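lol ok so funny story. i was supposed to be doing the assay writeup but got distracted and ended up predicting the structure for this chain instead. priorities right. anyway since i did it might as well share w the group, maybe its usefull for someone
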Amino acid sequence: MKGIHSDWAYKQLEGSSDGIIDFRIDDVNGNIRDLFQIRTMRDVRFTRELAELRLGQHFEISLR
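and the output, tada:
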């Protein structure tokens, strides 16, 4: 959540992390999608594409 602390505080926190993953929920015409995106990850190759998550029958989470 941006806007609660100063930009300096966010940069300090993000700089001390090995990775940052963003989660979001999209609701388009009642169709709800749970999405995530890797923003940064040290020493790991990754794509910044949004990926959709699926919640399974026993609460297991998988990529759609």
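The chain has a mean pLDDT of 88. The beta strands are 19-28, 31-41, 51-55, 61-63.
back to the writeup now i swear
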